[in-house]
Amino acid sequence: MARRFEALRPAVHYVRARWDRLGLRQDDHEVVAEATTYWTGADGGRWQSDSHWEDGLGELWHAVGRESLAISERLARVLGDGLPAGRTLEWGAGGGANAVEFAPACEEFVAVDVVASSLDECARQVARVCSTPVRPVLIDLAEPEAVVEQVGEDSCDLFLCFYVFELLPSQEYAARVLEIARDLLAPGGLAIIQVKYSTNDVSTWSRRRAYRRDLASMTTFAVPEFWELAAAAGLRPRVVELVPRNRLDQRYAYFLLTLP
Ligand SMILES: C[S@@+](CC[C@H](N)C(=O)[O-])C[C@H]1O[C@@H](n2cnc3c(N)ncnc32)[C@H](O)[C@@H]1O
After folding, report:
1. How far is the CA of 6 from the centre of ligand 1 (A)?
2. 246, 67 Cβ separation under 8 angstroms
3. How crowded is residue 64: how many other Cβ atoms within 10 Å of its Cβ?
4. pLDDT band at 12 (very low <50, low <70, confident <90, very high)
5. Mean pLDDT throughout 142-169?
6. Regarding the domain with residue range 26-258, which homologous superfamily does it belong to in the CATH classification?
7. What is the pLDDT of residue 39?
8. Which residues, judged by CB distance below 6 Å to any ligand atom, belong to the binding site of ligand 1?
């Protein structure tokens, strides 16, 4: 059976490519609506695992945060510095897997998410490991820009985002998040953003439809494409590290960006 599916793969890719060229992907509003329904539905074991709660990921939960921190430290060292120790903001903080690793070394941890219960869980996890204050910031998935007023322009020293860009509704939406990062960062601040990269294989390209089914492949980028998108948003890409496969998934690129 599996072999028969393998044989069908080229045909499936061909049909998907035609589908995309015909403009039959869903528009941004539809994908945003489906994404909002999925995340705020907060329903079941799959949701908990997709939200990276400890109960959902099991022993992988610790590995996620440790790997994010190790890669971030390595990237920051390329510029000759460590990670900034002031105010750190994580976009899409989920169940706190990264927060528990980064918060102990910063003055304040700002957790941004579209789900209130994930913000509670993130704050609970950080309180178990350190006394760094956590500021939860709940955003509306359709209006992410509101965060700039809530948190403050030029107010963050480190902007983090892991396992989120792949599930943003579209590349256009991703560009909005990059502009938000630019507005939130203080002079001298750093952003570390992980994206899922695409290759020449059509199956790795952004889906931009059927959110619930394909959320982890909703939005992908060729590596130079993301580099240019970040630059167009007013950030300066400095270094990229590729992780072709990890224990959760595959084709990850971690970008270190600064304000020009
Ligand atoms: C896969 S989890 C990642 C959690 C955490 N960053 C980690 O690496 O463990 C995705 C998180 O992104 C949140 N999310 C989904 N869409 C978002 C959006 N447009 N903006 C911010 N957060 C979003 C979800 O609620 C969920 O908590």
Report:
1. 32
2. yes
3. 21
4. low
5. 98
6. Vaccinia Virus protein VP39 (3.40.50.150)
7. 97
8. 35, 39, 50-52, 64, 91-94, 97-98, 113-115, 118, 141, 144, 162-164, 167-168
